[in-house]
């Protein structure tokens, strides 16, 4: 049976907060993807999240707070981190920062690291729940570990039916790709641990440049393993058109006679990002093989195309 889905009004928010106070888990909409939210202070709650997602306990969670002030209670902000937070919060940016000793986030949420990943989401329901709850929430994407992230309340209600007390319905996620994860380093440079909804163009506009974290980097995101976001079906990338027996996940022009879904007929990258995970799920339920159109990394939002291609490459890895 699917978990209950509550409309996102005042009574829905209060029910979610009540469940969280009782140590239960809640499906929470954010502007990026739906999160599996729980009290970040309680190791028993965090353990329940790892178990529900079947997530290895060495893979730390993102802590969600309502304001920069609240974030500063848990992590140390240098000048670069402060500039980033002031420019992009609330929004799809996660910062990996040194954890404050004696701060509220339990060690299990950080998987024992001396850093903590923190973000201030923009979605009004996420903000209302966190502010009313009054303490930090951990919220990994509300999918089973390694599978496709959820962008609608129904995805969570089905995938994590036994784990959540309820799912708050915030409609389809506006951004559709997870937050961009950045780690400011001691020498003033910026490491990107995960490509995401916040593009490099917005950072460049502030004169900031990122280096992508690699195997030898000082910091990495333990969760960025190659095979990730994986549907059951086989994915063939950069396809011009589907072969017989393949469904098509298109972008822009639609090949005649193809069966499938178009991420954006207009070739709009924002629309494509918002549709990506939902369409992957939907096609995965309809066939064993999916051909995917190429998503050109050009134009004023090329880095969004890069983030989409990053997810597609991981989804295609075997
Ligand atoms: O958009 C998002 O960020 C969504 C919504 C729900 O907020 N959340 C999300 O969480 O994507 P999750 O748990 O699916 O991804 C968290 C990523 C993982 O790859 C994890 O390894 C990395 O963040 N991470 C968390 N804490 C970290 C830390 N202290 N150092 C490095 N990486 C960290
Ligand atoms: Mg995830």
Characterise the protein shown here.
Strand 10, helix 7 and strand 11 (210-212) form a beta-alpha-beta unit. The model has no long low-confidence stretch (mean pLDDT 94). The chain has nine helices and 15 strands. Helix 1 (10-21) packs across helix 5. Strands 1-8-2-3-7-4-6-5-9-10-11 form an eleven-stranded mixed sheet, with helices on both faces. It is of the alpha/beta class. 29% of the residues lie in helices and 19% in strands. Threonylcarbamoyladenylate binds next to strand 5 and strand 6.
Quick description:
With 318 residues, this protein is of the alpha/beta class. The chain has nine helices and 15 strands.
Distance between the termini: 31 Å
Overall pLDDT score? 94
The helix content is: 25-40%
Instruction: Trace the largest sheet across and list its strands.
Output: 1-8-2-3-7-4-6-5-9-10-11
**Poorly predicted ranges (pLDDT <50, ≥5 residues)?**
none
Instruction: Please write the string of helix (H) and strand (E) elements.
Output: EHEEHEHHEEHEHEEEHEEEEHEH
Bound molecules: threonylcarbamoyladenylate, magnesium ion
């Amino acid at each position: 049976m699917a978990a209950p889905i509550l409309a996102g009004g005042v009574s829905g928010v209060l029910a979610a907060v009540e469940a969280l106070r009782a140590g239960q888990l809640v499906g929470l909409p954010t502007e990026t993807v739906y999160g599996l939210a729980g009290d970040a202070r309680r190791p028993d709650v965090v353990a329940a999240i790892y178990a529900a997602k079947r997530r290895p306990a060495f893979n730390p969670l993102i802590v969600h707070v309502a304001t920069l002030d609240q974030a500063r209670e848990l992590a140390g902000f240098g000048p670069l981190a402060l500039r980033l937070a002031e420019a992009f919060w609330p929004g799809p940016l996660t910062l990996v920062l040194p954890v404050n000793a004696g701060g509220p986030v339990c060690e299990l949420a950080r998987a024992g690291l001396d850093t903590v990943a923190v973000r201030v989401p923009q979605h009004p329901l996420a903000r209302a729940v966190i502010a009313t709850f009054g303490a930090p929430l951990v919220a990994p994407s509300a999918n089973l570990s390694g599978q496709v992230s959820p962008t609608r309340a129904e995805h969570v209600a089905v995938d994590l039916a036994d784990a959540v007390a309820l799912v708050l319905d915030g409609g389809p996620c506006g951004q559709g790709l997870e937050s961009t994860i950045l780690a400011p380093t001691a020498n003033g440079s910026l490491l990107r641990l995960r490509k995401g909804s916040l593009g490099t163009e917005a950072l460049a506009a502030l004169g900031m440049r990122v280096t992508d974290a690699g195997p030898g980097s000082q910091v990495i995101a333990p969760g960025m393993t190659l095979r990730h976001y994986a549907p059951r079906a086989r994915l063939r990338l950069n396809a011009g058109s589907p072969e017989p027996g393949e469904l098509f996940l298109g972008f822009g022009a639609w090949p005649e006679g193809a069966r499938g879904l178009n991420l954006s007929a207009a070739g709009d990258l924002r629309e494509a990002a918002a549709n990506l995970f939902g369409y992957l799920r939907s096609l995965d339920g309809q066939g064993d093989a999916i051909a995917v159109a190429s998503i050109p990394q050009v134009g004023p939002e090329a880095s969004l195309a890069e983030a989409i291609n990053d997810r597609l490459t991981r989804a295609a890895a075997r």
